[in-house]
Specification:
The complex is a heterodimer of chains A (409) and B (233). Chain A is of the alpha/beta class and 409 residues long. Chain A has helices spanning 35-46, 52-61, 73-82, 95-102, 104-112, 116-140, 143-172, 177-181, 185-195, 203-208, 213-224, 233-267, 269-275, 277-287, 290-295, 298-303, 307-316, 330-333, 337-361, 366-383; strands spanning 3-8, 12-16, 22-27, 67-70, 87-90. Chain A starts with a strand and ends in a 26-residue tail after the last helix. Chain B is an alpha/beta fold and 233 residues long. In chain B, α4 runs parallel beside α6 (194-207). The longest helix of chain B has 14 residues, at 194-207. The chains are: A alpha/beta (409), B alpha/beta (233).
Chain lengths: 409, 233
């Protein structure tokens, strides 16, 4: 009873005898096979699957009663489930295979006529493509997670604002002057949660929880001459419940932002490199996934998030919006109004390219995209340095929402 | 910036260079196989028409081991290396420099996130690098890409790391070939004293038939790390 050893290689499948010599082989790398089909085949091989043609080759080449030595146990199971007559023996780390591996370049050269140099360059190219493919596949499944995370982040922000206004109103019964003095919700929460009673508020304690010196001084002075009502421990406890939750929400917000940033690195490194993780994730969420975003024209990406204004424009002939969520990009909102439309168009165009690279190839080219964009923005800034002679009528409607005091996001 | 004055090859290790600087200091370096491209923000130095990459021992454990007096370094020009745990490619890029165009580096990494970085920063620019997104614990899954190698370099920071390294060595390491392994005490078992972990990992290698030839601590370059060199008999 003889043994045959199954040696897999990206270019061919070999059957070796016990001396490690190739008895026969099946060529995988052929001119008549498309690169996609070929990569798919290699991918399947890694998952422990073999295509029909190779199974047939094995069935043809192994004598009934012979043992077939296979290194990977998944692959061994697959073969024995398909070829009932073949006796599969799983054995990793055996001498025969190792010897053949030492000689692989020679084996390829004599059996396939592919020179060692060609073999290594092929191997380099193939593994590069295959690995990119696999990395992309992992990331693909994750784009919807990122979309959910950014929505969760918005929920958290909304809740923080909601709780902040409640705590501000509530605690103002005790210390009304504080509301005006402290802009940052988080600072306000900290004062309520960590210090509490107005008469406990001192400059030292305020500095301790991270407030700036001049602000701490102002608050401490205001606390001394406040006109608010007195507060019992019993009442303060209730206010603190909400204030503590607010602080926890800030911690949640930071973790979510970190998660989104990490995940975006995998999902869409080019979009991330071009506009940052948060804005990038928001665009993916609005489009309904990275794939969908990649299929959108730049003009649509430009107004993603401004659908209401866009359809108003389309239906009633109002002015079309110049930008959707990409307004959040500093290049746009920090520029003068009359330049924003042009910059938005340039940014959206680069975003469309970045999204397509992320969705379909996965290389990293954000740096050149960003350079190109910055060049164009520079051009816009010099060409349109002054406002147009007849200033455009500005539409206030899209700025959205009432004026909020303090940090909104 | 301090100017580099001259460069000489390392006394014992071919492919490794020592660059002398104006201020009297000298640093390890390798010839950049992908001229003009930095991998981890390292300094690039041009001397005599060649570009050298300064090799930072605080970032790369192999450089740390050389600074700490490593005696055997089987990685030289033309060497075939199976590198387990390439991460984003700091040390592998220098290994790729040393082995040069006639060597091959099979780079295995499990995490897609760092693999992406490894591909863009290292693999695309270096034709002697074969990137493999795979789990080093299951060598038979990537066996079809890998030939028999002279050296297995492992930086995988795993419990039972020696077992997995030996599994790989059984399949891919030539007779007389070398295992180079960084052991991070903390990621194997935090409850044990570091030296105990090192010993256990080295015992496991010996049990599997690999002779430990050398071991050293990487302080101050890396805390609680040891570096082990073993040979397949």
């Amino acid at each position: 009873m003889a043994k045959a050893y199954l040696l897999l290689n990206p270019l061919a499948v070999y059957l070796l005898d016990e001396g490690g010599e190739a008895k026969t082989f099946y060529k995988l790398y052929r001119d008549d096979i498309s690169r996609e089909r070929y990569l798919e085949l290699l991918y399947d091989m890694e998952q422990g699957k073999l295509p029909e043609e190779i199974l047939e080759f094995i069935a043809r080449s192994v004598e009934p009663g012979d043992e077939l030595v296979v290194e990977d146990s998944d692959l061994g199971r697959f073969i024995s489930s398909k070829l009932k007559d073949v006796k599969v023996v799983p054995a990793a780390g055996n001498e025969v295979m190792l010897k053949a591996r030492e000689n692989i370049a020679n084996l390829i050269e004599t059996s396939l006529g592919v020179s060692a140099q060609k073999y290594y360059s092929l191997l380099h190219e193939l593994t590069l493509q295959l690995t990119r493919l696999k990395v992309k596949e992992v990331a693909e499944k994750r784009d919807l997670f990122v979309a959910q995370a950014i929505n969760a982040l918005d929920d958290v922000n909304k809740t923080i604002n909601l709780f902040a206004s409640r705590v501000r109103e509530w605690y103002s019964l005790h210390f009304p002057e504080l509301d005006e003095l402290v802009d940052e919700h988080e600072d306000y929460f900290r004062i309520v949660s960590n210090i509490g009673f107005r008469d406990k508020i001192t400059k030292e304690k305020l500095l301790e929880i991270g407030l700036k010196e001049d602000l701490a001084e102002k608050i401490a002075n205001a606390a001394k001459s406040s006109m608010g009502a007195d507060l019992t421990e019993f009442d303060l406890e209730a206010i603190r419940l909400i204030s503590d939750t607010g602080l926890r929400l800030y911690a949640v917000r930071r973790s979510l932002e970190r998660y989104i940033d990490e995940a975006m690195y995998e999902v869409a490194p080019n979009i991330r490199g071009l506009v940052g993780s948060l804005l990038g994730a928001r665009l993916i969420s609005l489009a309904g996934g990275l794939d969908k975003l990649a299929k959108l024209p730049a003009s649509t990406i430009q107004v993603l998030g401004a659908e209401k204004a866009l359809f108003r424009a389309l239906r009633y002939g109002a002015k079309p919006p110049k930008h959707g969520v990409i307004f959040q990009h500093p290049l746009i909102h920090k520029s003068p109004k009359w330049q924003r439309g042009k910059i938005a168009r340039a940014l959206a165009a680069k975003l469309a390219i970045a999204a397509r690279i992320d969705a379909f190839s996965g290389e990293y080219r954000a740096d050149e995209l960003r350079e190109d964009l910055e060049k164009r923005v520079e051009e816009i800034k010099t060409l349109y340095a002054k406002p147009p002679a007849k200033p455009e009528k500005t539409t206030k409607a899209r700025k959205g929402g009432k004026h909020h005091k303090g940090g909104r996001r | 910036m301090i100017r580099a004055l001259k460069v000489r090859e390392h006394e014992e290790f071919p492919g490794v260079y020592v660059v002398d600087f104006e201020d009297g200091s000298s640093k390890l370096a390798t010839i950049n196989l992908a001229p003009g491209i930095k991998v981890y923000g390292e300094q690039l130095v041009s001397i005599g028409g060649k570009e050298y990459r300064i090799w930072n021992p605080y970032r790369s454990k192999l450089a740390g081991a050389i600074y700490k007096g490593l005696k055997t370094n089987p990685i030289k020009p033309g060497t075939k290396v199976l590198y387990l745990g390439v991460a984003s490619g700091t040390t592998p890029s220098h290994v790729s420099d040393i082995i040069g165009p006639s060597g091959v580096l099979y780079g295995v990494e499990f995490a897609p996130r760092v693999m992406r970085e490894f591909i863009e920063k290292v693999a695309v620019h270096r034709s002697n690098v074969i990137p493999l997104l795979a789990d080093a614990r299951f060598p038979s899954k990537y066996a079809h890409f890998v030939e028999a190698v002279d050296v297995i370099y492992a930086d995988i920071a795993q419990p039972f790391q020696s077992k997995y390294v030996a599994d790989n060595a059984d399949m891919f390491l030539k007779k007389g070939g070398w295992i180079m392994m960084a052991i991070k005490a903390m990621s194997i078992d935090v409850t044990k004293a570091p030296s105990e972990t090192y010993k256990r990992e080295m015992d496991e290698l010996e049990r599997r038939g690999y002779k430990v030839k050398e071991s050293l601590h990487l302080e101050p370059y890396d805390e609680a790390h040891a570096f082990v060199v073993a040979q397949k008999l």
